[in-house]
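User: Sorry, folds how?
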Amino acid sequence: MLDWDDYRYFLAVARAGTVTGAAQQLGVNHSTVSRRIAAMERAASVLLFDKQKDGYALTDVGLALLERASAAEDAVIAAERTLRAHDYTLSGELVITAPLALGVTVLAPIIARFHQTHPDITLTLISSDDVANLRRREADIAIRASNEPDEDLVGRKLCVQRTAVYAQRDYWRDHHSDPSLVVLGPQPAKPDWARKAYPKARIGCCVSGKLEVLAAVEAGVGIARLPCRLGDARASLMRIPPMRLENDLDIWLLMQAGLQNTPRIRAFADFVYDAFRREAALFEGLEHAVVANSD
């Protein structure tokens, strides 16, 4: 007889479309996923997937099972949520997800302080720019940068995030008249702020994330627009023209409805909210700004 774990593996492959993607979701080796799917098909005497060059495609039987398995998953998740909502202890596990740059630079120190206050709560921080699915219990709490947070989740806005343009001090002294640009993304597209303020500037480096942008600017590769909370915290960096602060995405703390009063979730949510409110002026670029001029 099949157990719930079999269906978890089936759903992961059905959603990812590949064994490798499913393995990443489940946190197991890809060979484990292959074995589990093969064993499931043997036990049921059916073919659930058509194995193609570019991945796994559901057969008709697989498509029919997907609907039933998804409904069963919803029921299991609802049952677990009911149990967790009635867990009144300040102990246990808590999984937090946050964007990579925010998780590494801001949230990790907050978690360290929280752990000192609540040593019986075991925290796991998933720092990734991939959006975790809270409904599927991929995390308990999400810290997200968004101006339109998921309406199915509950939470609070932590702060407004603003950005400015930054350069490494020595780089700006030597290259303020002909700076290179550090841009986010694989395509070498000149951003709007650079077209207006630096029409002759050329792209010097393309990077994949905000931490890489920060590292490149610190290394003197070029200039870039950064969140003030990141740029102003680096003594080697300074703001450069245009001096105008730009509103970026708001920062939110979000969780599943019904879990907000679970003691360990409430304790962490309140702790993070207070920590972010104390730093709100830093996120908004109103404190500790080292500003440069162009002469």
Notes: Residues 289-295 have pLDDT under 50 and may be disordered.
